[in-house]
Amino acid sequence: MNKQIENLICQDGGKLVGYACVKEIKHKFYLAPNILNGIDYAISIGVALNKEILKTNETSPSFLYKHHYRQVNMLLDRIANNIANLVISQGYRAIPIPASIIIDWQKQLGHVSHREVANLAGLGWRGKNNLLVNKKYGSSIRLATVLTDLVLEPSAPIKEDCGSCSACQEFCPVGAIKDTPENFDRDACCKQVKEFSRKIGVGICGLCLGHCSEKGN
Ligand code: B12
After folding, report:
1. Rounded distance, CA 208 to CA 182, Å?
2. Which of 69, 139, 156, 173 could cross-link with 131 by S-S, CB 3.0 to 4.6 Å?
């Protein structure tokens, strides 16, 4: 089954895949317990962002990036849906979690933290910029998750961190990136995203993501 999952992800344009047991973190998911009953595993999927497009985010997010962001979200949702259908066709349950839906605007929460699942599934580590950082692509990746009752052998977690690299830090317009991910200033980041939305009509940022080393697709 793993091979079939990986082939399908690859065929659809996904670059990263990992498996995790989410039993210990599923109480944090924004889904009713009856829906999560028996659902203890997750497939984490990563799609790499286009390096050249990220370069257009010099001091503010570009319209090219805004379009790319939407397209990659659509791609991730399609991949997650296709994977869920594959798993369901084998007699299991599967729930594709959308790449980028906020269901609690006050607390800024999605159904599931894709970053936390991806971290458990060995896709990367938690960077200083509070993003999931992958060894090959840096943080220039977007993520989706498929929850399932199919028992999957968990991938080995990556025991690394950003070390002395702080390449992203100087590009954050509001200084939200500190020396540890725990100290990341989420409120300042949120405020800046709203500011970009008001000023230039692009309600995302992505400067820290594109300046995570020179990695990317
Ligand atoms: C709401 C939201 C935002 C809000 C608030 C973010 C927030 N809550 O931190 C705003 C608008 C500010 C925002 C900004 C951005 N976002 Co955003 N956002 C989301 C969204 C939709 C929900 C986040 C959520 O539910 N958080 C709930 C809390 C509990 O989880 P958490 O924030 O992931 O992590 C906390 C805990 O889980 C814990 N933790 C425990 N273990 C681990 C392990 C790791 C690896 C991490 C990072 C954390 C962590 O620490 C964190 C506390 O700060 C997710 C999609 C999703 N469903 O995951 C995308 C998502 C997190 N965003 C993403 C991105 C790329 C961005 C931006 C770069 C903008 C952009 N789109 O270009 C910026 C950068 C922000 C930053 N440096 O952290 C990507 C991250 C990809 C990656 N490589 O990590 C996601 C996963 C979307 C996706 N489908 O790929 N975002």
Report:
1. 16
2. 139
Distance 30 CA to ligand 1 centre (A): 15
Give me the residue spans of the domains in the chain: 2-210
Q: 3-class secondary structure for 83-116?
A: HHHHHHHCCCCEEEECCCCCCECCCCECCCCHHH
- The Å distance, Cα 53 to ligand 1 centre, comes to 20
Ligand 1 pocket member 131 (CB < 6 A): yes
Tens-digit pLDDT profile for residues 116-150: 999 999 999 999 999 999 999 999 999 999 999 99
Q: Residue with the nearest Cα to atom 72 of ligand 1?
A: 206
Which residue type occupies 36? L
Query: 159-165: long-range contacts (C-beta < 8 A, 24 or more apart)?
Result: 159/125, 160/125, 160/135, 161/125, 161/126, 161/127, 162/125, 162/127, 162/128, 162/133, 165/128, 165/213
Whole-angstrom distance, CA of residue 210 vs CA of residue 55:
7
Span 187-214, pLDDT tens digits: 999 999 999 999 999 999 999 988 887 5
| Distance from residue 113's CA to the centre of ligand 1 (Å) | 7
pLDDT in tens, 39-85: 999 999 999 999 999 999 988 999 999 999 999 999 999 999 999 99
